[in-house]
Amino acid sequence: MTVDGLNAAFRADSAAAHSRLAGKIIAVSGTVEKVVIKEHLEIRYIILAGGGGESQLRVRGTFGREYRPELSKLSTGQQATIKGAYQGFERNILLERCELIA
């Protein structure tokens, strides 16, 4: 699944997309927009974007401490795939307990 594909599903019917993804582990590919690592606060996440511009939802994936070395190698604009537990959507589509796949 891609960030753009998720956006299309949420634009078409956000309630149905949320229901379909609730409780599922999903893999999402997109472009790294931001990498945040704040070890002193136990915060590690990345934001993946699609190609649809500012109006699209992004995917925010949070990671455990063990992924810090891999996350620190990511750079803005790089393609990445993450897999995590869908937790809902607000400003972003939220995935928790993520793994960096590619």
Describe the fold and architecture.
- With 102 residues, the protein is an alpha+beta fold.
- 23% of the residues lie in helices and 46% in strands.
- It contains 2 helices and 5 strands.
- The protein has helices at 3-21, 68-71, and strands at 25-38, 43-49, 58-63, 79-89, 92-100.
- It has a 5-stranded mixed β-barrel.
- It is globular and about 40 Å long.
- The model has no long low-confidence stretch (mean pLDDT 94).
Helix content: 10-25%
| CATH H-level superfamily | Nucleic acid-binding proteins
Report the structural category: alpha+beta
Identify the CATH class: Mainly Beta
Shape: globular
Listing every helix as H and every strand as E from the N terminus to the C terminus, the arrangement reads HEEEHEE
Average pLDDT confidence is: 94
Strand content: over 45%
User: What's the number of structural domains?
Assistant: 1
**Helix count, DSSP H or I runs of 4 or more residues:** 2
What descriptors fit this protein?
single chain, alpha+beta, 23% helix
List the helices and strands and how they pair.
Elements: H1 3-21, E1 25-38, E2 43-49, E3 58-63, H2 68-71, E4 79-89, E5 92-100
Parallel strand pairs: 3-5
Antiparallel strand pairs: 1-2, 1-4, 2-3, 4-5
Task: Kindly summarize this structure in a few lines.
This protein has a single domain, classed as OB fold (Dihydrolipoamide Acetyltransferase, E2P) (Beta Barrel). The protein is built from two helices and five strands; from the N terminus they run H-E-E-E-H-E-E.
